[in-house]
Amino acid sequence: MYDDHTDPFARVWGANLHFGYWESGVADAPIAEATERMTDELLARMSCSPGEHVLDVGCGVGVPALRLARTRHVRVTGISTSAPQVAQASARAEEAGLSDEVVFHCGDAMELDFTDDAFDAAWALESLHHMSDRVRALRELRRVVRPGGSLAVADFILTGPVHGPDRHTVEAFREGGGAHSLGTIEDYVADLRQAGLDVIEALDVSTQARPSLTKHAEVFRDERHRLVPTMGEREVDRMIRTLERLDEMPQAGYVLLSAQVP
Ligand SMILES: C[S@@+](CC[C@H](N)C(=O)[O-])C[C@H]1O[C@@H](n2cnc3c(N)ncnc32)[C@H](O)[C@@H]1O
């Protein structure tokens, strides 16, 4: 999905491939500002010191990793399952003059190609919902982050049970958006604990992230003509429909989590 859709998506949404954070719960700031703000909200939940090495799980095209490196003066290794994303992220690091500090590789979060305790901290910015086995990915993170190291996660959740036609919407999000691990905050916390992590904070920021759904649908509708040639009419319309329906579902939520390796 990301091999084919990253470029068209980034063209209309911006290269931060994640939801925005609007403090007021209404879209009173541009998308680019709100997506940077979401990165900053996650940054605020990361404990890492200058010179330390942080793993970025599901790095997209590298924008959050570069912000992390610049803000905290850390080294970052980003991984993604998408080779074109890794190539773009590496080019961005090069352009930013940070290619020694920030590197990107192809890799699968559920089977990390790193030794035990290789990192001081890790974050996953809107990537763990893609995991077919979230506990397995979290166990891998626990393994590669040293004892005492920090983990920060931003991700989609459902704030309650879903009934009737809304179940089809969630199914469409799973199928079309690759959202394989979708559940409540309690499910997330249970998965973190099952992976052996100490949970520090689980904050429901559904209200602050929700304008993203409206904005996403709006941008995709407005830019439909630019998206169709690369993504295809069927895919674009399916995406718009799913976003509009999710926007009508009060259970469509978002969480910020922080944890520590014991
Ligand atoms: C919604 S994007 C977020 C990208 C980036 N964190 C950002 O905020 O700009 C999800 C990312 O997760 C990556 N991803 C999906 N499944 C993965 C897996 N099994 N292992 C590693 N990365 C994965 C995708 O390639 C993509 O980069």
UniProtKB/TrEMBL annotation:
Where does the Polyketide synthase-like methyltransferase domain lie?
34-262
- Recite the UniProt keywords alphabetically: Methyltransferase, S-adenosyl-L-methionine, Transferase
Fetch the Gene3D superfamilies from UniProt: Vaccinia Virus protein VP39
| Keyword check for Thylakoid | no
Top-level division of the source organism's lineage:
Bacteria
GO biological process per UniProt: methylation
GO MF term set:
S-adenosylmethionine-dependent methyltransferase activity
Q: What class of enzyme is it?
A: transferase
InterPro entries referenced in this protein's UniProt entry, alphabetically = Erg6_SMT_methyltransf (IPR050447), MeTfrase_dom (IPR020803), Methyltransf_11 (IPR013216), SAM-dependent_MTases_sf (IPR029063)
Q: In its keyword annotation, does this UniProt entry include Transferase? A: yes
Record-listed E.C. numbers: 2.1.1.-
Name of this protein? 27-O-demethylrifamycin SV methyltransferase
